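Notes from the pairing session

We agreed to fold both candidates in a single pass and log them together. This is the raw record for the first candidate, unedited. Please don't reformat it; downstream parsing expects exactly this layout.

Candidate A
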Amino acid sequence: MTETNGAVPANPRRLMLPAPYLFVLLWSAGFPVAKVALHASSPFVLLELRYLCAAGAMAVLFAILRPALPRGARQWRDVAVVGVLVQVVYFGLTYLSLYSGASATVVALIVSLQPILVAVFAPAVVGEHVRVGQWCGLVLGLAGAMTVILAGGGRTSLTLAGGALAAGALAGIVAAMLYERRFGVGHHPVSVNLIQYVLGAALCLPLVFLGEGHLEWTVPFAAALGYLVIGNSLVAVTLLLAMTRAGQVARVASLFFFVPPMAAVIAWIVLGEAVTPAGWLGIAVASAGVSLATRRRA
């Protein structure tokens, strides 16, 4: 069906129920999978290929569905700002941090601290009220996430440069969520994704030539690239923006506390980074924090 007004179709509430769980799984897997891809590619070469493939897929869907594009300079600006913050700042700095030698689990922890920052700035930027229970849940989730990382031992490496890059990525995703909630309009996800991936590819291209431009086509790299295109670029980002528009920012952001524990589990499977008993305890604590922070009032 073709959308003519550019708005995201209203989904039945029951269809949105599995969205947080699917998002957490897809987003969490992106860290260890990106680490695999970065064994054979430099960060901006990987991002350029990822965005070109994602933009191509979106172009096909756009030709079939023919959804409306943003109207007016302001709507184009809003879509572009969020696109730069997510596709270039967040993903670019995250990949640079991983490429510098930081472990996938530690990077996942740092960028997933964004619920704390979102909760701090949301009242001033978005006008939302953050309840005491949400603050307690956020703190509990942070404690659980840190337990997972600290229990990792020598596998959880992080240099000063890697930490700074991950902190920059954190700032990018926080700004994107707050901006999307404050200024975002319910555009069709195909239109938004197409614009943002084309923009991401255009901005990453000069960075490819400024860097080393390393690339080795291997089976693991091709598989990782395929996942990053479909799982992260096409599905996870769309779910994130849809949930941000549909619910309170602090509540949606608290889902990120599931990311470090889940990333640790997937890194164990994909990269051989074992989760200790203390790490499993941290997963339980983080899950309890998310439950508390996202609990709706009776």
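Candidate B (folded immediately after A)
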Amino acid sequence: MTRALAVYTAAGALLLGGGCALIQPPTAAGADADASLPSTTRAALILTVDAPTPLRNLLERHLDLARLQQLPANERLGNGELNRLIAAAPSQARELLQTEGYFDAQVSVQRENDGRSATSTASQPRASQASALTPARVRLQVQPGPPTRVTERRVETEGALARRASVGDADALALQQTLQTVGALRPGQVFRNADWAASKQQLLTRLRSAGYAAATLSGSSAAIDASTQTARLMVVLDSGPLFGAGPVVVTGLQRHDEAMVRHLAGFGEGAALTEERLLAYQDRLQKTLLFQSISVGFEPDPAGAAQTPVRVRLTELPLQQATVGVGVSANTGPRVTLEHLHRRPFDWPVVAYNKLEWARDSQSWAGDFQTHPGAGFYRNLLGVQIDRLRSDTDVVLSQRLRLGRTQDTPRLERLYFLELLRSRQAELPGAAVVLSSSAAASTATALSANLHLVWRDLDSVLLPTRGITLALQGGAGQARHPGVPDGPFARLHGRFTGYLPLGQNWYGQARLEAGQIIKRDAVVVPDALGFRAGGDDSVRGYAYRSLTPVDEAGGTVSGLNVLTASVEVARPILASMPSVWGALFIDAGRAVTHWRDFKPALGYGVGLRWRSPIGPLRADLAWADELKKLRLHLSVGIAF
């Protein structure tokens, strides 16, 4: 037989919303019948529900009989009212089971022997009334039968979406097709009231996010056939008008240019005001680092849908910001960082940034000017950077001057620049080996044109568990080194990282890195352009930048080629501490001068992760297979 869901929805709402009204002190005849009984003889109840666990939990939460067990002793119901609730329990249970998709359930209730019958009244002898002190025992037996499954679901549209689709609009047709797959209930799934309600809301949310912000639900129906355990669903959506962009109205600016805010919209008047488009606009504003709070939205007034004003509400950040950070890393030891940011120096539309980092084995200063974003979301930049890196055998000092442009979008970052690089490699005082060349001969310079790309598709940029990142670098230029011929070179480098949930609270992470410098043998490029492996984010178990080639005297030098890989699995250690994870990992790789010399060094071990709000903090204990030694790797940092 086919029944309309509206009947069950109404019954379920009455049951869940007003079920407590059934548990009231007896009135009229019921009250009079129990009036002669003292309060100590009020009936108590022990209910046993025989049903599959999920359904048993549902019934024990919502059945009136189940809730009787929670009443205080002085509010126990009389025997007559208890019998009435016992008689009503099968019908009430069936209505609850229908909300979970069981429309042909068999339910029976039995009051087990407790010393009196279910129809006992105040006219019984006092001796039998004394037995009422024994709790009533009731058993509810449920045979749910097969669940009802969805065999058909149709989503129909009215309004502007239907009209646009009827004339062949590609976006409208694609959206209609998408709506057929949106929602918690699809053919083959068990029909549940909660999923049915959620599915309709998800359809509305998807339609509104596509620019039809005034969309409403015109109607819906669920035809249930209990004899065949099937459900046929239909939803009718009225899309209302498609909201198009009008003028951009900006409020909250005090120092920065309104033209810059408008450029970052990335769309013109008439463009559909989709959720994705507005969120991308908001993300671009956030990446300017100029605003403390950002709100991008519009008022969905159907009367003016074609030219809807886009309202941008901003609160500017202070002109200047200073940050102090401390941390420790196995790569470079303890460190302190000082950062300063000026968002409009000399009232110019630029951002001036300076960062000084001082660590045991690394010291650096970076300073740059970047213009505020303009047309096409581009910034012009001028940057200077000085780095000093120390390994076990050498010190590399490099200076860089960059001039270029950068473009940031939600998924893709581009950086184009010209770079002048000077790099000096020198012997580390007290090292066991010395470099084969003099200090003057170890200084090289290069002028190059470069392109860096970073593509991200992650569920979280800060603490990812699913998705991928791909970083690519390419450059070409001219290198110069005293005593050898000048010559051209090209540099390529790529790094892929993937994240994937593995099930059972396990998470996987894999990384692959490869790089190569292409040049004639006689050409010497700056050491800072070369590759080194070892340490955190490379091959754990080995010292930072230690997996590199050595020259004739045994001193380390940067390689022309590098290949590293890593696989890691992790999971929360305790359910009560979901942000603390344990990890197992294996790393491999090395930097070499020639690929024919490549023999990967292996490192593997265990680690501890704290997925803190400021990012992951890590501790790894790794075994270096090549050295037969353990090494502890730490990465901890705090900014103030």
